[in-house]
Amino acid sequence: MVKLQSKVLTKEKLKNYAYSLGIDLVGIANIERFKNAPPRMNPANMFPDARSVIVIARRIPRGSLRGIEEGTNWVSYTYFGYHGLLNTLFIQKPLYELACFIEDHGYEAMPYYSGVPETQPPIEPLRPGAVAPNVELHIRIAALAAGLGEIGWSKVFLTKKFGPRQRLHAIITDAPLEPDPLVTPGSICDRCMACVYNCPSDAIPHIKERKIESVVIEGVKYEWAAVDVGRCCLSVHGGDKRVSPFLAKDFPGLMFDARKQKMSEEEAYKFCWTLSTRKFRKTKEFPSGYIVEGHAMLQKWGVGGSYNLCAGRGCIRSCMDHLEKTNRIKQTFRNGSFIKRPRWLLPIMK
Q1: Which of 349, 169, 127 is nearest to 253 (CA)?
Q2: Global pTM?
Q3: Distance CA 4, CA 103 (A)
Q4: Mean of the per-residue pLDDT values for the chain?
Q5: Which residues pair with residue 159 across a beta bridge?
Q6: Measured at the alpha carbon of residue 78, what is the angle toward residues 186 and 222, in degrees to the nearest 5?
Q7: How many CB atoms within 10 Å of residue 193?
Q8: Which domains are present in the chain?
Q9: Could you say which DSSP state residue 315 is in?
Q10: What 8-state DSSP symbol labels residue 43?
Q11: Distance CA 320, CA 328 (A)
């Protein structure tokens, strides 16, 4: 029989333990903040007795973005800032340990893998009166509800400490914890539109277009751009010739402009992943075996999963550079501005 620790589990006690595990940021929302969430995005439908949602963050090292900014290295960001950070022990081990800590105090804790569901296919409930699977917590809105920061115009989550440089996971628990205060809208993102002007696939509409998404939490309204997730996916996962040197090398005759596509997110994923996962027999004429070699290499370094070619040229790198220059975030660096040299984009056709 496991002996329970002191039954009193306070917010301060929980956060101190989380920080001791190497977690950078911790925010807490009470379950009431999710009362208006769609049924298949409501944490109470995963855990009906839930009282709190704890959202944690680990930082993306600024230096992991350097190789892509300079056009010289893609592995560091894929592994230490993207898929490798989300799907390895970097974030999952401390999340697991924190869940165990909560359960040692007598409360149930459900660790939750990060997700940002855009659409959910119609599925019948498994039992009468229940919500259909799969219920997915919108991790950025959860972080918003937990007071960690705000969703920037680009739909990337921003915190006062790191700007756009963090990855998020959560724990849903029946522990009654004091919620953190919400962040004031606009206290981090000043709608500078750097994300819009620097997005290689034109996936982010300008604020003048008034294409927005929004959520209201405790009477506070938060808004962000209705991003074209299909175009975004093309740039991120290697379907955009302007940001993928590997695609440009293996398909020099391909006239494919991501800015002009009208793909859904699912269609964009299928297109990009076909370029790296369909490996055919190697021949003298096709020594790479019909795959894009650089994409396959990044998939390997992405721990057999997702890789990132764009590294948020607009929504992360340009945003971060602006927030640092205008002193809107706390972490700054001795070497000054992140963007130091003329930026590169490849032509659609040479």
Answers
A1: 349
A2: 0.91
A3: 8
A4: 90
A5: 149, 163
A6: 15
A7: 18
A8: 11-120+129-189 (3.40.109)
A9: I
A10: G
A11: 10
